[in-house]
Design brief:
five-stranded parallel beta sheet; alpha/beta; Isoleucyl-tRNA Synthetase, Domain 1
Length: 544
């Protein structure tokens, strides 16, 4: 509804501006009106247009308000200093939008008027030489939420986990397991965590005769099994677990190198093969592709992997990376351009660290896994829903302080409990309506007009407007590539329900039309919360 109204407004303003020979900004966005303004939406465009054309912003706001007041969706359009137009929407269009949601909640928010993209999101991709740690959970929550939202918006999206099962680190891992099994010292540059000793001793008796390569192979498979289990417990699924070894088998590194050579992006120096992009990209230096001893670099394998993504038809590549990967981004952007793909088709999200607390006290939980906190430990203590919601509430670019005690509270202080409680409360309202014969269980009649002259309470209008804004929030998630706008939206919607429930009597046998209209609104709130929570991987219990 908001999108269609925004399109109509933009078309009308462009026509008006053309007749007036006025320049316009590229976008003419609507926004929710501030809380202190008695309106639903605000248009800031008059200020921008005035600045571009040296005009009085209030004069332009008055003109634009006059032409928008005639829209059927608009009850009133009022100019406001210093140059806004505040819009109040008609009740009819708000109720019709609510009916659209309730008819098809699973597609509410889908963008039908633009072409879908074929997108691949690679996330988590932890080395198969250790358990998943808490930071992997942040990447998992971020990636999975983006996959869900982008699919909801109509895109074709693949979720992928990249397994680094080739190279020097795998050999070191195998040597570390072999040493632990034999009771010998682990190489200085090997893997020293206690989990390595436990894993080495968990193998069957025939492992005593295994070679280093066999220890590496079985160790990787054992740890990947735990990765899959942890991701499943976290509500995260992948369409494909892509192995680096597949690239070597398919000679994909040679193919990628041939592309770079054909494009004149490769040169020889000091016996090595280099990618020459430092002078034409954000990267600060050229990078080695083939070492002096003939072994390919990790970077060439990454280039081959990304070329593989393009060869599978993906037009947009999103990588979600840990906090120690800042330097990786410019070099991969340079490689994407060197391969001949648009640099803008690749986007990297580097999420920051998680700091664990109990109240105000910092925590180190793991006693078995070395120096890191295992994701499974936190899931076991506070549950999947709290983890997913807390991770989703902050932009990935900011550090996250995770309070274990807050995450376990069953009070309104805990944001995920607060949202889930509203969903459960509405389910109980319908049970009561059913007991009183106002509402048949499992059905929601379409809105029936209330008595003439009975207008919306402010608390009802606030909910209707917030529900109408849900599709715009999904677009914001896509634009910012972060689920935090959605998590905070659900929290705000839950917050609006409480004053509505206190002020507006919902189950009222003496006023059936009014009661059923409010039940209809309650169902809209419930479904929006359920859909919003579902898109960030959080459940919506019916009883709490």
């Amino acid at each position: 509804m908001i999108a269609s109204l925004q399109k109509k407004i933009a078309e009308k303003i462009r026509s008006w501006a053309k007749a007036r020979s006025l320049s316009l900004p590229q976008e003419l966005p609507l926004s929710l009106a501030p809380a202190h303004v008695k309106a639903d939406l605000s248009l800031v465009s008059p200020l921008q247009i005035a600045k571009m054309n040296q005009k009085n912003p209030m004069d332009l706001a008055k003109e634009i308000a006059e032409i928008l007041a005639g829209f059927e969706e608009v009850e009133s359009a009022e100019p406001a200093p210093p140059g806004f137009v505040n819009l109040t929407l008609s009740e009819k269009v708000l109720w019709e939008n609510l009916a659209t949601l309730i008819r098809s909640p699973g597609v509410y928010g889908r963008c039908e008027n633009r072409g879908p993209e074929k997108i691949i999101i690679e996330f988590v991709s932890a080395n198969p030489t250790g358990p998943l740690h808490l930071a992997s959970g942040r990447g998992g929550a971020l990636g999975d939420s983006l996959v869900r939202v982008l699919r909801r918006l109509g895109h074709e999206v693949a979720a992928e986990y990249y397994i680094n099962d080739a190279g020097n680190q795998i050999e070191k891992f195998g040597k570390s397991l072999w040493a632990r099994r034999k009771g010998e010292s682990v190489p200085e540059d090997g893997y020293h965590g206690e989990y390595v000793a436990q894993l080495a001793q968990s193998f069957p008796q025939e492992a005593d005769s295994w070679r280093v390569e066999e220890f590496a192979k079985h160790g990787v498979e054992a740890l990947l099994k735990t990765h899959r289990e942890d991701m499943e417990a976290f509500g995260v699924s992948f369409d494909r677990w892509f192995r680096e070894s597949e690239l070597y088998q398919a000679k994909a590194l040679d193919a990628a190198l041939d592309i770079l050579k054909a494009r004149g992006m490769v040169y020889q120096k000091d016996g090595a093969t280099w990618l020459g992009t430092a002078s034409s990209s954000e990267d600060d230096k050229d990078r080695v592709l083939i070492r002096q001893d003939g072994r390919p670099s990790y970077f060439l394998a990454d280039i081959a992997y990304h070329q593989n993504k393009y060869s599978r038809g993906f037009s947009r590549l999103i990588d979600i990376l840990g906090a120690d990967h800042h330097g990786y981004v410019p070099r991969m952007k340079a490689a994407i351009a060197a391969l001949g793909h648009p640099e803008k088709s690749f986007h990297a999200i580097v999420h920051q660290l998680i700091l664990l607390f109990r109240g105000k006290e910092p925590v180190k939980m793991s006693k078995r896994a070395g120096e890191f906190v295992r994701l499974k430990e936190v899931i076991d203590e506070v549950g999947k829903d709290a983890c997913r919601f807390f991770f989703a509430m902050r932009t990935p670019h900011s550090h996250l302080n995770f309070d274990l005690e807050l995450a376990k509270k069953r009070t309104s202080e805990n944001p995920v409990y607060y949202c889930q409680y509203v969903h459960a409360r509405i389910c109980s309202i319908f049970e009561e309506a059913n007991r009183q014969g106002i509402q048949e269980k499992g059905t929601v009649p379409f809105f029936q007009k209330r008595k003439r002259g009975l207008s919306l309470f402010p608390e009802e209008r606030a909910l209707l407007i917030k529900i109408a804004w849900f599709p715009e929030i999904l677009k914001t998630v896509e634009k910012e590539l972060s689920p935090h706008p959605l998590a905070n939206y659900v929290l705000e919607l839950a917050g609006l329900f409480h004053p509505f429930y206190e002020k507006c009597r919902v189950v009222d046998p003496e006023n059936l039309a009014n009661s059923r209209a409010r039940l209809f609104l309650c169902e809209g709130v419930r479904l929006t919360i359920k859909e919003g929570l579902g898109l960030i991987g959080v459940s919506s219990p019916e009883k709490m």
